[in-house]
Amino acid sequence: MLRTRKQRGFTLIELLIVIAIIGILAAVAMPMYRAQTLKAKLSEVTNTMGTIASAVDTYFMTSNAWPPACASVLALQTDLGVNVPTDRATFVTGGSPTVVTATIQNISTINPQLDGNTITLTASTSAGGAVTWTWGGNLPAPFMPKR
């Protein structure tokens, strides 16, 4: 009587197809991963800018005047009471109405052309005295905050 042998393992073509599929998925996923990593690092900057904007709001509401210009971390800490991390950007406030400016630095070795770009938050007041903020700057559109 003849016995049939059971197939064990995978054939070479099956393994090559799986490797090709994994390669295609990696080719699509890596650029998306890099973009999301950059956006996450930039969100640290925009969150800090939001904190500075809140401190400016509080200053404006309590003294009915814009705060003095702050060109250093020490000035932001003493005048506005804001602790600012300096590893992703340098922050400056000033003007009347106030403009919060962040100059991007050390964001990524993957996309170094973002370094040196700026993000701004510009304050304006309504008739009721409420402060509203507008995003601006020269950061490329895919990386600008969508608020």
CATH architecture: 2-Layer Sandwich
- Can you tell me the CATH superfamily? Glycoprotein, Type 4 Pilin
CATH class label: Alpha Beta
Q: State the major sheet.
A: 4 strands, antiparallel
Beta-strand residue percentage: 15-25%
Count of helix runs: 2
Shape: rod-shaped
Note the run of SSEs as H and E.
HHEEEE
Compute the separation of the termini in Å.
Answer: 77 Å
Given the helix and strand composition, which structural class is it? alpha+beta
* Proportion of residues in helical segments: 40-55%
CATH fold call: Glycoprotein, Type 4 Pilin
Average pLDDT over all residues: 85
Which strand order does the major sheet show? 1-2-3-4
Would you kindly provide a written description of the structure presented here, covering whatever features stand out?
The protein is of the alpha+beta class and 147 residues long. It has one domain (12-143): Glycoprotein, Type 4 Pilin, CATH 3.30.700. It is built from two helices and four strands. A four-stranded antiparallel beta sheet has the order 1-2-3-4, with helices on one face. The radius of gyration is 25 Å and the shape is rod-shaped.
